[in-house]
Write a structure and sequence with these properties.
heterotetramer; A: about 425 residues; alpha/beta; 2 domains; five-stranded parallel sheet; two-stranded antiparallel ribbon; B: about 325 residues; five-stranded mixed sheet; four-stranded mixed sheet; binds thiamine diphosphate; binds magnesium ion
Chain lengths: ~425, ~325, ~325, ~425
């Protein structure tokens, strides 16, 4: 300890969110640029030419639901309706599975409510065989790619129909066929893996690119840094998406560095292309993703995109956000709801109306309900209809070494002795 | 004395010590305002302020690395790693830095940090919320590893760990945060309020590191366990009505070899239990030590009941968990030999 | 057949396989143009091009993480970690990702990567160029761990490791890169050109993982060793003129338990040797397994000669190294019992 | 693998340095701004106000050796001579210890030739009790702080006089009294530790700040990222110095990302203050460090400084750079030699001349020689005069647990049996 009369004592700054439970939420000081105001650089421009995009916000849909400005992707009404439906289905799926967890049918669930535009619109902007390395909040990718809901639910229930044989925590989907990488419970590990996959694709002269996602909180992990470094060094054809939903369980984005700058600005630090995008504007999400994908496909290198959004619900079924943030935040949050905004746009275009929307909501709800019924035929967690006990020893290695075989036999013998059903 | 569950006991340890020593700081993901995902640090930020109890970026590397630097300054940081499964990104800072700092500076710089982390399974957490990586830490010269099995021990051991001038890994068996667990997952859950070791002094007390606890003396067989498995073993002993000596290791390193040796020399038989995967788990070290030191007293091989050598599965959790059936079978086998 | 030292044999393994399989890529710090700080990848970039053999940023996390992604794509990456002491920053990607990927995706995604890394001491490298962390990896379900002890084995095992569809940690005992080493640091260094196992086929051949090698059959005592310690043990056996059976494990996981068991049942005595720190080292697992399986054949406790439980010191390297004196004393002790 | 007629095959970019052995080195395309041209922001300006400084180069000494522009720290001739002498002594020390290693007196050595201005001028700009967390190439800090050379040499020889008891690799100095943190062989680990130390200082209301150093290659480690993130979040009073000497053993800076942007630009990514400085200009080094220190001392937060320099010699005694880079680089390198440049400045000021310089060189050479003689009285590596064998077991823990005590006894007994001298 040293004190000097001519020097002030040092102070530790500890970030603090603006609002805590009971506070009035007011986002008046969050700068929200007007829709259409942000320029769209040519896909072959050098990253240094558009640093300002890391501090702005690419927005297409204005308050009236009109698509404006250079980022308007000019999608067909069919595509717009496809994205809208994918988002609605994702929300319905979340609702139902959340409830299933509450009913004790599984151990865990995580919603993406309020963030549906990100995965859903992106699935439309990417090719079907572009490889996705998601976090746990991009179920919208699978749903938008029309992956069977029953398959997802089987995984959530860890039941007999679960392709992952009950080995993984609910929602940690994996499908090679769906170009959707096995989700990890360890945050951000997928980022360097996506870069490696993209590097491999480039080594082989393939045309498929990779995309990966993590939350703003997860950007603090070393994996984020190594992903950006390797992507920059080898100009890997990859899109690194930071979903800034402003919360990481109970910690606001200030603990990931948001008080000092944007997450898109990280891109500037690595000399790679960076964009900051209205994550609740499906058209902006689509346009930014398409732009980044085109850069990647034409060997212009990686893009880091920050999607600015808001985690409208709790972190997971284990979380209760009313303990640490203002209940008003969700409604006061200025970028609105992604489904309402796209709906408004389609209606403004004359391509949609309230009745069709209500009908669609009913349809997706029924689809989800029917899938749930089917999935539950395969069992729910903890009610006996799990995979045979000895599957536990499979897939540790390609072929089972002696020690695992021995443990397997031992387990079966002990179970038999104790009268436990093993299959 | 008060009734506490293990979370409350840990919270009380932190509270008592922070009150005594202004150099103790508590940090980790969600430990500040919210008080931790298991609530172990609840109320501490309000009481001791934001610069002594604070949330961190999600970087286990940073959490440990920063704690090492704070330790070198002279603070006594108590970082939390939210789940033991997430300790690996911070492992280099633990293994290469915290553990070796005293050695490489010949005592000039030290890292008096205590890393708290919930570990173990039994809560349907799947492979990334269930692991027991303690064996790795016991292999690293310069680290101490502690695992409590009761609220009383948790408080006393945590106080001793924080006051220790060497880095300590303090693994909290999350399955028994709320109550002891016999391994019979299908029976009603107990809580600590019915258990004598849920009786915890509100004030300061220490349980010296490196001292095991004989949970139950016995003549026929020595059982070595720690954390959740102490309770599972106790349940089996009761059910089977055998005269086993049950030893709760409490500190894995430094190990209380005297208590172990005396017991095995008396009983002639030894069973080691842990939830971690078997191969190269801490049970291997225990087994090796016991046969090295008690060879001529052993009447049967030292046996191990452990987690299988697979990742922790989600739906087959109870098939994986080293529960009463497996422990019972192992005891029968040892006693037969 | 050609004369090769261990570096050349490793280089030859990479060369032979890269020529056969266009999906093999080699990457790591300084492995590209320069050919690696130990020259193990010399000439490969010139031959196979920059996109198959390349330098990387100094990020062990990134090296392993990127390799996992390449493996998922369908490549067969062979990352190098410059020294085993520096593997910890990449440990999370190995333990939580590479090792568990097949399991958590039920076989859909795999990580067929082979991490090469020089390990062990005896070169005055101090605590950060001498470590033997193999015990940590053998505790992780889903990883294989291999340690060659001769140029012939190094090539055959490396080929098998790279062709294996699971992640393999391939530790190269750097002390014997150039020649076998008896542990008598004060005697003139030997090189592989005088040793029969320095005779290495130039073409493709495999040595199956999981198979130990009986270096020398014997009746009185079984010695289990791997890497450098195989040669130190062989020297002591020769000097002492005892009839020990020396087993070079070659693969630590999966272990060749049959060969071990058969030998110990024959000799009734067992000594385990490794350079890694003792507590929770791989020797603990070997000791535990041997006493579990050969208990009624053992005439003396299984003994361990290992590195002491301290960081690897610089100037006292030869006091730390488990050399001929210590091994000799341990043999005398076992034979006396 | 997927090919599409309308898409080019992807390509992996693998960086390649401009010159390899045998090539003519030509740095004509390296932008070197004129001395004095870079503005000096007020120490309380917001980092966003001077992003351009991350892309320029703070330079004070011009070609004629004049100190020009706003960054001129206006040091007294005595201070200038002090810095010059520290640099000269560091170089003499390096030469002598390098030779000692070649003579077999120790196992390893690392020079900092060409980079002396960084540590030496910085030691003058920092307070004596500011805590340094160096890499292995900042021996100049100790020398400039007049730390006894004999003590450093004892460490290098791992002899009886080594305070570290021979436990550490040569050059891995440590002195709490010298406010110099124990050097680690693991790259970049010191960075988050320095941030933690600085946070602790701020928590306690101390006035001491921390400074830390790593090479440009080491910035790729996760530790760098966590250091910058924590420093940004808590506004820690720390200076993070990236010594960009353009080589990391055999890998040029392109493998750390230098093709895409500067290392100073990483600061922009984190929203912290960033400077890029001519590392061979002792005055610029001093001025930038003083500026950053003042920011830290007045609670303005961390600064990341890239010092642009050139590693004039091999990485260490284990390295031969002629195998991978052009032998001409050193002489062609445009920022010259830091000692010659400061000497020229002092001469231009009329405060120095060739004779005094030659005399100083002789003095420091003699000083180093005398110290070496003294140190060698305590022994050199591998010649018996090491510390007693049982010191090996000390300092693993504060008090020795039974298993170490047992191992110690065993070792002593075995050594005795074998007739080995243990003390
Ligand atoms: C390596 C690691 N550390 C900690 C955790 C625990 N954890 C799970 S989710 C989470 C918060 C993540 O926040 P963010 O990245 O913002 O993603 P979001 O949940 O908001 O989508 C934490 C700390 C983990 N899963 N992995
Ligand atoms: C974690 C870790 N990885 C790898 C190494 C091996 N290594 C030692 S120095 C070095 C190069 C460092 O280059 P740079 O950071 O530019 O520093 P410089 O040597 O140029 O000062 C490497 C790869 C190490 N010491 N630690
Ligand atoms: Mg978030
Ligand atoms: Mg460098």
């Amino acid at each position: 300890m040293s004190t000097r009369p001519n020097l002030p004592p040092l102070r530790l700054h500890v970030p603090e969110p603006k609002f805590r439970p009971g506070d009035e939420a007011d986002f008046g000081d969050v700068p929200i640029p007007a829709a259409g105001a942000t320029p769209r650089p040519a896909v072959d421009s050098a990253p240094a030419a558009f640093h300002d995009l890391a501090y702005g916000l690419v927005r297409v849909l204005d308050e009236k639901g009109r698509a404006v400005g250079p980022w308007d992707p000019k999608l067909s009404p069919d595509t717009l309706r496809g994205i809208l439906r994918a988002m609605a289905k994702t929300r319905a799926f979340d609702e139902r599975m959340y409830r299933a967890q509450r009913q004790g049918k599984t151990s865990f669930y995580m919603k993406c409510t309020g963030e549906e535009a990100i995965a859903c619109a992106q699935a439309y902007a990417l090719h079907r065989d572009d490889m996705c390395f998601p976090s746990y909040r991009q179920q919208g990718l699978l749903i938008a790619r029309d992956w069977p809901l029953v398959d997802m639910m089987n995984q959530i229930y860890s039941n007999k129909g679960d392709r992952l044989a009950g080995k993984q925590l609910p929602i940690m989907y994996s499908t090679r066929e769906g170009s959707f990488f096995s989700i990890s419970g360890n945050l951000a590990t997928q980022l360097p893996q996506a870069v490696g996959w993209a590097m491999a694709s480039a080594i082989k002269g393939d045309t498929r690119i990779a995309a990966t996602w993590c939350g703003e909180g997860s950007t603090a992990e070393g994996d984020f840094h190594s992903a950006c470094t390797f992507a920059s060094v080898y100009r890997a054809p990859v899109i690194i998406c930071v979903v800034n939903n402003q919360w990481a369980i109970s910690s606001f984005s200030g603990f990931a560095g948001a008080e000092a700058t944007t997450f898109a600005a990280r891109a500037i630090g690595y000399g790679i292309a960076g964009l900051r995008v209205d994550g609740n504007d499906a058209l902006a999400v689509y346009a930014a993703t398409e732009w980044a994908a085109e850069r990647a496909r034409t060997n212009q290198g990686p893009t880091l995109i920050e999607f600015f959004t808001y985690r409208a619900e709790g972190h997971s079924t284990s979380d209760d956000p009313s303990a640490y943030r203002s209940a008003q935040e969700r409604e006061k949050w200025p970028l609105g709801d992604p489904i309402s905004r796209l709906k408004q746009h389609l209606i403004a275009l004359g391509e949609w109306d309230e009745e069709r929307h209500a009908a669609m909501d009913l349809e997706v709800a029924n689809e989800v309900k029917a899938a749930q019924k089917d999935a539950e035929k395969n069992g729910i967690l903890g009610h006996g209809m799990h995979q045979p006990m000895s599957t536990m020893f499979q897939d540790v290695f390609e072929t089972m070494p002696w020690h695992l075989e021995e443990q397997r036999q031992e387990m079966l013998a002990e179970a038999k002795a104790a009268g436990i059903e093993t299959s | 004395m008060a009734r506490m569950n293990m979370i409350q006991a840990i919270n009380s340890a932190l509270d008592v010590l922070m009150d005594r020593d202004p150099d103790i700081v508590v940090m980790g993901e969600d430990v500040g305002y919210f008080g931790g995902v298991f609530r172990a640090t609840a109320g501490l930020q309000a009481k001791y302020g934001k610069t002594r109890v604070f949330d961190t970026p999600i970087s286990e590397l940073g959490i440990i690395g920063v704690a090492v630097g704070m330790g070198a300054y002279g603070l006594r940081p108590v970082p939390e790693i939210q789940f033991a499964d997430y300790i690996y990104p911070g492992l280099d800072q633990l293994v290469s830095e915290a553990a070796r700092l005293r050695y490489r500076s010949a005592g000039e710089f030290t890292a008096p940090i205590t890393v708290r982390s919930p570990f173990g399974g039994g809560i349907f957490g799947g492979q990334t919320h269930s692991q027991s990586p303690e064996g790795i830490f016991t292999h690293v010269a310069g680290l101490k590893t502690v695992v409590p099995s009761t609220p009383y021990d948790a408080k006393g051991l945590l106080i001793a760990a924080i006051e220790d001038n060497d880095p300590v890994i303090f693994f909290e068996p999350k399955r028994i945060y709320n109550g002891p667990f016999s391994g019979h997952y299908d029976r009603p859950a107990k809580n600590w309020s019915q258990h004598p070791d849920g009786e915890v002094p509100e004030d300061y007390y220490r349980i010296e590191l490196g001292k095991a606890r004989v949970v139950r003396p016995g003549a026929d067989l020595t059982i070595l366990a720690y954390g959740t498995m102490v309770h599972v073993a106790a349940g089996v002993i009761e059910e089977q009505g055998i005269d086993a000596e049950l030893i709760d290791l409490r500190t894995l390193l430094p190990l209380d070899i005297e208590t172990i040796e005396a017991s095995v020399k008396k009983t002639g038989r030894c069973l080691v239990i842990h939830e971690a995967t078997r191969t190269s788990g801490f049970g291997a070290e225990l087994s090796a030590l016991v046969q090295e030191r008690c060879f001529y007293h052993l009447e049967a091989p030292v046996e191990r009941v452990t987690g299988y050598d697979t990742p922790y599965p989600h739906s087959l959790e109870w098939a994986y968990f080293p529960g009463p059936v497996r422990i019972g079978e192992a005891i029968k086998k040892i006693m037969k030999d």
